[in-house]
Amino acid sequence: MEEIMKAKNKLLTLLTLAAGAATATAVINKCIKVSATSKNLLAESKSLCYKWRFGNIHYTKTGTGKPILLVHDLTAFSSGYEWTQLVNYLKDQYTVYTIDLLGCGRSEKPDLTYTNFLYVQLLSDFIKSEIGHRTNIIATGASSALVIMACNQAPELFDQIMLINPDSLVTCSQIPNKHAKLYKFILDLPIVGTLLYHIASSKQAITEEFTRDYYCNPYSVKSSYVDVYYEAAHLGESPKSLYASVKCNYTKCNIVNALKKIDNSIYIVGGTAMDSIRQLIGEYHEYNPAIESSLISESKYLPQLENPMELYKTIQMFFV
Hints:
The chain is of the alpha/beta class. The chain contains 14 helices and eight strands. Helix 1 runs parallel beside helix 7 and helix 2 crosses helix 14. About 6% of the residues have low confidence.
């Protein structure tokens, strides 16, 4: 009887400690979110809202002329802010649209599994509803695959396409495996998963991303950019949901067949400091020989932030 009582007391102690730890972790998660979004850096006085069926989509519209849609990279840290400098160059010649994709920036971030098809539908619906004309489009990184698939599905909505440092075709083809599904299950947990996301999206982690992967010259990374990305990563109802979907390959899709079929003009732009960029361009060109390309000097993954003037000159050359 005494041993049973001891076992019960130990169990009660463990449960009490576990509950205390869970409560403390939840408080930490809340404090991180409040701190990350306190500066309100992404406030936009001219913000527009597209009421899409899966959530409200934030976008901006600037300038006059032929429409051009700018689509940021598909990460939990990204937003239309990525195009801030480039918009200033383009607005005198184009009606420039920037969009915060569902789960990103100032758009709604519902707790769901994000897929390539979801974003293909978003891009098509947005162009039909908010632009209303066939449009030129520029996309960065992982969002390039979304544009290729959307154009293949509804070519009448798209004119010329520019892809900035798109994912390799092998990367696009990855699918969720058993390990990825388990990791997503853990990330979806309300307390532990949120803590893991906060570690992955910390200011230090985003700074390392900029200096290691985004910029050719790590010393030119502006702290203000890091602050904006940090805020974008913590806004909304469930910012970790997109992170889990991207990390576990739910947003990936094999684009080879679509790339072969597309008849639109496609232009690939790469940063000279990107590893294997020439090989990547060659892979795309193999499946669509009409693709043109060029490299932006003194830049890496985000030339629109690191060397916007050079990118603007390339856009002028291509979008004629």
